[in-house]
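Input for the complex:
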Amino acid sequence: MDECLIMMEIARKRETAIIITTVSFLITFLPYFFPIPALDVVQKYTVDWALITSYFMAIVGFYYLTKVNLIRLQKRPQGWLYGIITVILVWYMCITGFAFGTGHMSFKFFYDAIALSLTAMVGAIQGFYLVGAGNKIFRFRDVKSSFLLGAAVVILLKNAPVTTVIFPGIQPVGTYLIDILVNSANRAFKIGTAIAGIALGIRVLLGKESSQVGLATEG
Amino acid sequence: MVNIFKVMATLNKRILYLTLLILIIVGCLYPIALPITVTPWTTDFYNKINAVQPGEILLVHWGEGPGVEKTMWSAIKLTLWQFMQRRVKIIWMTTMPMAPPVGEMLLNDPLIKDAMKEEHYVVGTNFTDIGFVYMESGLVNFVKDIQGFTQNKFKDTFVGKLKDMNDIQYCYYMGGDPDAYKWLAQHVSLRFKTKIFTISDPSTFPTHLTYLKAGNFYSCLDGVTGSAEYELLTGKAGPFLGRMGAISTTSLFFALVIVLGNIGYFGWERKERVKPIKVGEKNV
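Predicted:
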């Protein structure tokens, strides 16, 4: 019994979490730079563990989705009904999928008739909101906002096939905007976030990022 | 008296939504065959598939959700059809939980079914479905050790002869998951010589182009306009070519709304604009 308590105490320590993070990081990171077969094998096992653990995450998510919505059913706050519909559908899809397979009509019907249409609808609805917002947001307020306005209008006209035929000059301008300007800004953004990610990773490995090891509230 | 500039600056949303809805419905019900131009990216995509040699291996990384059936179906099926015309060997891999039924729909599409019959695609000989591969860890394991990952289940097919991703010449990523294409760039194109084709919706297309410029991707296609362009290039007219009329009218309507908003802004709103509230100041 005492041994169990000691083990639990060790597992709870901040240092243990940092050591596990560091070792896992090195196992997956080093094979990129050092082609050592043994390291490759260890990396493969670690990745397998990650894969298996991720499946457990789905089960935990399923459990909490049901639990949280059942609690909401008791308290009945605003929008509780949507949560219940979600739970019913999740259970329905799971049961029919496991029992009859994903090819069975009972499973396919809900997918084809509901999931298919609703996913397309979510995208379609955005168009309406964008038109409403476009009238209010894209204004020539100053020089900076004029860049956004100009780019938006050019891209819209470029995307309208009929305009590219009537005004062939629109196509190369739109292509330049997407291919050169958006690309360079995108790349700068990506490199910036990658460097920030590396900095964060180093802080985690050095134990300076307490939230990573569940100690955010103690800090 | 009604201030016309005020009306332009504050267009009624109900009217905007209704007009847009009418434009879409009319455009879809009565498709007008408006002329379209093919973008350089689509031309490049088309030409690069045409340059694929018979017998080369293509890994289809299928990660599309159900929405694509309405938005870029023609581009998806016509590009796959074009690959089949090149008689490539296909490995089919599904990578998104919602994707398998849509993939099944694609494989059951009459055009693809006919192509499989005409080009003598036989499951196991030149077409193998290796099933669901979960997230980054699944992809990493697959690309490094194909036999280990598949546990030699496909040893009697052409997949049984493949060691790692170096033995696969092309990968075709069909999906919009922002993580998935990062994993492909990181684990496939940087470590192996596989050339990656991608198809995506217009919102993620510029990001794909970043990878294209960096040399991580081989060719990228915007699936929405690409659908109509592909129908034009392959001579297989479908619904998307007709829908280009609706895309044209709605895009022009959007541009018109912006122009009206700006006229209203200069004619009325700019004069009426209240002093902006500073941080910490009370809004009274």
